[in-house]
Amino acid sequence: MSTGPRRATFFANSKSTSSAASTTNPHLQAALETKIADKIQEQASLIELRDLSKNLYAQLEKMLAELESLESGTEVVAQIMDHWNSVLRTISLASTSILSREESARQSSQGPSKDDDELQRKAKLPEKLVRMPLTN
Fold first, then answer.
1. CB 94 within 8 A of CB 129
2. Nearest-CA neighbor of 101 among 80, 78, 82, 125?
3. Total tally of structural domains belonging to the chain
4. Helix 26-108 vs helix 114-124: angle between axes, to the nearest 10 degrees?
5. pTM to 2 decimals?
6. Is the residue at 84 inside a domain?
7. Range of the domain at 98
8. Rounded distance between C-alpha atoms, residue 40 and residue 28, angstroms
9. pLDDT tens for the chain, residues 1 to 136
10. Do residues 127 and 100 lie in contact, with contact meaning Cβ atoms separated by under 8 Å?
């Protein structure tokens, strides 16, 4: 039981020495207040940094979603561009076929007849284009 009162006197002595030290050494008190103010400022800066980091994270997530949609759009554009080559080639073939028909119709006609009129009418019609996949 002798330890109980000793603890009480120890705490009482520590309070009196800390208050006595703070009153006797104003330079130490000012240094502690400065350190506390610096820590409060550091905490405020860290809170601001945390908030800015959250905003940056949200913006980056939004940007990621937009980039994913752009990526899929880019793939579609690439597919369309791949198809344009075959479309232009098909148009070229069709126009070449029309020109060759007109030329053959001119060479075969020797005089105006009913068959020549029909050949000219057929020559003016475009070539029938059928869409068939080239790859399976």
1. yes
2. 125
3. 1
4. 170
5. 0.39
6. yes
7. 26-124
8. 18
9. 445 455 444 444 545 445 544 456 888 999 999 999 999 999 999 999 999 999 999 999 999 998 888 888 888 888 888 888 888 887 777 777 666 666 666 666 655 555 666 656 655 656 666 667 777 5
10. no
